[in-house]
Specification:
The structure is a single chain. By secondary structure, this protein is an all-alpha fold. Helix content is 72%, strand content 0%. Helix 3 (58-75) crosses helix 14 and helix 9 (174-195) packs parallel to helix 13. It is globular and about 60 Å long. The two termini are 30 Å apart.
């Protein structure tokens, strides 16, 4: 799911984005909602547990999304402007999340009226809906109680914000820009530990998300190495440092994701899958289904968790059968997702593209920053 990025000529990225979306949909629609279902047990027994792929492949899907986002950011760095990052990425993400929250709020009201019973989301007050719609809850040290899937967007936006001061350096000297980014993370870690900033309750919650901020840097490093603006030895060196930083950040600021649910394993699998697919790019052919599904991947990410849960659990309560609830609920959910993509996401994106129009630098005549 690129929140505003394009796969451009990388057909493999379209396939990977669809693959990542399906992994997360499986996690949230099926494994999370129906953990006692026999097919879920079988998948966990043969794949999740022996391979340490946590969260029923959800962590693998999220890791792929982070890598794809970082890769496309680096691949498009010569066509990216500060206004483009601010408007087409950050503003667009926040605005579409808010609109998706409004759509889901109306949907949950309609379902409540049709069934004559309150939904799970009826317990939340107006302030909770508003704070979750605009990411305010994260700054208050509160979880997202409306749409649990949107946490991914928070570290992704932090990554974009930190990339803005380095944008010019990325174009001229990619390797140096990555060194500066990683050096900042080292210094930030040291200062945080010395001052014990993570022990402050509100900041502690924010700190727990910081390890994921580094996941897109894996994609960026792969992109610069693939483009040959960074040599392979230097690219590998950057990835090793990133691995060490991510592990240490998890250990220090989000221990459960280090010890109990080692997220780093899903990241390693995601990086390996991404690199293999990238090297086999010429083998991927245009597929209409993949392209159509890829276009709605961001809308899917925004709405699949709340809308899918509402629709599938409502049908399960009526039908009393998991298979029937999924068979009917998944298509209905994707109809809602498509309508949001068609009548909300596309118009908003087109409007913001016009707002963000700005001159972009030309490509350099030769590789630099090796």
């Amino acid at each position: 799911m690129g929140t505003s990025g394009s796969s451009q000529n990388f057909e493999c990225i379209r396939f990977l984005r669809v693959f990542a979306t399906l992994l997360i949909v499986y996690d949230h629609f099926i494994a999370f909602r129906f953990p006692q279902w026999l097919p879920v047990h079988a998948v966990q027994h043969f794949f999740n547990r022996p391979l340490f792929l946590i969260q029923d492949f959800g962590a693998l899907g999220v890791s792929l999304f982070f890598i794809i986002s970082g890769f496309l950011f680096a691949a498009q760095v010569y066509r990216t402007s500060i206004s483009g990052i601010l408007v087409k990425k950050i503003v667009r993400t926040i605005l579409l999340l808010a609109l998706a929250t409004v759509v889901f709020y109306l949907l949950h009201l309609i379902v409540g009226l049709l069934t004559g019973a309150p939904t799970y989301w009826s317990q939340f007050n107006a302030m909770q809906w508003v704070t979750n719609a605009f990411f305010i809850n994260y700054f208050l040290g509160l979880p997202d109680v409306i749409n649990g899937a949107t946490w991914f967007l928070y570290p992704l936006m932090l990554f974009w914000i930190l990339a803005i001061p380095l944008l010019k350096l990325m174009r001229k000297k990619p390797f140096l820009s990555m060194v500066v980014y990683e050096a900042f993370l080292v210094v930030f870690f040291a200062v945080s530990k010395i001052l014990n900033l993570q022990t402050i309750p509100e900041l502690g919650y924010l700190y727990s998300f910081i390890p994921w901020l580094m996941f897109p840097l894996v994609g960026m490093t792969i992109a610069f190495t693939y483009q040959k603006t960074i040599s392979i030895p230097k690219g590998l060196g950057l990835l090793v440092v990133l691995y060490l930083l991510i592990v240490q950040y998890f250990f220090s600021f989000n221990l459960p994701m280090y010890a109990e649910q080692p997220y780093i394993i899903s990241l390693l699998f995601a990086a390996a899958i991404f690199v293999i697919c990238l090297l086999c790019e010429s083998k991927f052919r245009v597929n209409r289904f993949v392209r159509a599904f890829d276009r709605i991947s961001f809308a899917t990410y925004l709405l699949h968790m709340p809308a899918g849960s509402l629709i599938i659990l409502t049908l399960y309560g009526i039908l009393g059968h998991v298979s029937l609830a999924l068979l009917l609920g998944i298509p209905i959910t994707f109809i809602v997702i498509y309508l949001f993509h068609r009548y909300v996401e596309i118009p908003v994106s087109n409007l913001l593209k016009k707002v963000a129009k700005a001159p972009v630098p030309t490509l350099p005549a030769s590789d630099e920053g090796k």
